[in-house]
Design brief:
Elements (H helix, E strand, L loop, with lengths): L1 E4 L2 H12 L7 E5 L6 H12 L13 E4 L7 E5 L6 H5 L9 E5 L12 E7 L14 E8 L15
Parallel strand pairs: 2-5, 2-6, 4-5
Antiparallel strand pairs: 1-7, 3-4, 6-7
Helix pairs in contact: 1-2
The structure holds adenosine-5'-triphosphate (ATP) and magnesium ion.
Adenosine-5'-triphosphate binds next to helix 1 and helix 2.
Length: about 160
């Protein structure tokens, strides 16, 4: 499934739309170059989940847990500095009882989990950035494993 995102706000709305389907044990795998919008997506997702604490780039902590008053916490992982799935495993994340969003997930999930919803964010070729840095993005959503079979995006207005 391919979605075109026009603004950072809309990237957040995509996160919110996906958040409505999430439950404990779910994992969102985010990929895309520096500044693609992985954290912007996760922020929208976190806000929709009603997490405590601002969702910011977790770069210097590898993983940050955002508790929620009702429901499983959001664990936000930045795998940029991880060298292998074993190093992700070493973080001892309670995957079964959390909702996990991993930035730079490519190549880090094999053997850790079979089920994830993958989001690959790219910039369309030839797109023009506006003065305030807004530029379209293309998000390719790929379901992996039994959990995500038949995934559909609902409650999101496509531009
Ligand atoms: N259509 C868009 N969707 C998402 N972000 C956009 C868009 N247009 C412009 N931006 C800007 O791009 C930047 C995306 O930054 P963000 O931190 O979300 O990226 P990232 O993929 O997490 O980067 P990093 O690899 O450094 O973690 C933000 O400054 C955001 O405002
Ligand atoms: Mg980021």
């Amino acid at each position: 499934m391919i979605v075109r995102i026009e603004t950072p706000e809309q990237m957040g709305e995509l996160g919110a739309a996906i958040a409505r389907q999430l439950r404990a044990g779910d994992l969102i795998a985010l990929d895309g170059e520096l500044g693609a919008g992985k954290t912007t997506f996760t922020r929208g997702l976190g806000e929709a989940l009603g997490v405590r604490g601002a969702v910011t780039s977790p770069t210097f902590v590898l993983a940050r847990t955002h508790p929620r008053t009702d429901g499983p916490p959001l664990v936000h992982v930045d795998a940029y500095r991880l060298g292998s799935p074993a190093e992700l495993d070493d973080l001892d994340i309670d995957f079964d009882r959390s909702i996990v969003a991993v930035e730079w997930a490519a190549g880090m999930l094999e053997g850790v989990t079979d089920d994830w919803l993958g989001l690959q964010i790219t910039r369309p070729r030839g797109a023009q950035e506006t003065e305030d840095g807004v530029e379209p993005r293309i998000v390719e959503i790929t379901p992996h494993g039994e959990r995500w079979r038949g995934f559909e995006l609902s409650g999101f207005r496509l531009s």
